[in-house]
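User: Hey, my collaborator sent me this sequence without any context and asked if I could get a structure. I don't really work with proteins. Can you help?
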Amino acid sequence: MVTMVESPYAALKIRDFRLLVGGRLLITLALQIQGMAVGWQIYELTKSPLYLGFAGLAEALPALGIALYAGHVADMIDRKKLAIGSVLMLVVSIALLTLCTWLFAHHHMLVYIIFAIIAFSGFARGFYGPAVFGMVSDIVPREFIGNAAAWNSAIWQGSAVVGPIFGGALYLFLGATKTYLFSTIFLALSFFCFCLIKTSTVVRAQGRVDIVTNIKEGLHFVFSNQVILGAMALDLFAVLFGGAVALLPIFSAQIFHLGPQALGFLRAAPSVGALLTSSYLTHNPINKNAGRTLLFSVGGFGLCMIAFALSQNFFLSLALLALSGALDGVSVYVRTTIFQLSTPEHMKGRVSAVNNIFIGSSNEIGEFESGMAAKLLGLIPSVVFGGCMTLLVVMIAALKAPKLRRLSMDTLLELKSKPVETVT
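Assistant: No problem. I've predicted the 3D structure and written it out in structure-token form, which is a compact way to encode the shape of the chain:
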């Protein structure tokens, strides 16, 4: 019998892992504050759900466009340097957002300026994802990967709880410009955390590598692995159809008749549930029936979205969003552990890049889908439709990916990565 980890605090005892999750916490806090402020500001400027959807699309398209190349780069160079560069780009983008909001506060072109800056930040996040995904295995021993995934999720969700609430309060009392300024400061602090990390990337020793061939190798690995592909596809379509984050400003204003501070609580509620789940999983990792647990958690997420759409009570809606976050926390834990344990070290960047195309950008594409659906179907019917589609996706995944359905984490932990050499 293989155990995932001996101590629930094993990963946190590693200095560089603490710096890594500290940097990620600050980035998440900053981006949650920025996301809340951008959503409310665009809604104030346009009063249109379609424009809220376009905001997600503006960030997703650059990240999608650069993802495969970013994965190739993350497998060829020191991932720490790549992470530092991408965080610096995020600092610059949010600093520009702060400056432009201050200079063009009453200009009719401000919404398009915001879209352009968000697109630049999406480009930065396209490199950030593969770099940080690979850094985890550079820092954390294989037997502690599950524990690291749980702590990553718990700390990420903790910042995602605080970020929207703090951002809502900042926006309410200080306005958009100063809210973005706080986000910039947090990103700058994250930059210093990444600079302090002492680690080096481990990849295969090899000569000159053709970019196209290298990318094809990563794609072939993902699409020939039923477990990885099934987990990615499951979350892609669940998030694409099941998310309602982009529409929360409208729920806050039109359904609950509240303002940006209430929006902050709505955005934070899923992270509260996910934080509780992640904290539980640091002490009680999922070993047996991991695949079935993943399927049930995504299905439960879809049911929560349907119930949220039909709710007219603010506090009931908060509870449903929190429950959806708790179920999503289980899904994130299982998927992250699958990807880390199933992927050879020399392919971490490329697999993460494909994962970002499937999952990372599905959040933003999902926001666009939500905005379009709300425009065509109406607010509440669009969210109900999305929840029903999520349930359909779960049923298809259960039938088409039997290896994922029968997955046990203990089996993955026993797998060994191919031998690797350090490239200096």
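In plain terms: The chain has a mean pLDDT of 80. You can pass these tokens on to your collaborator as they are.
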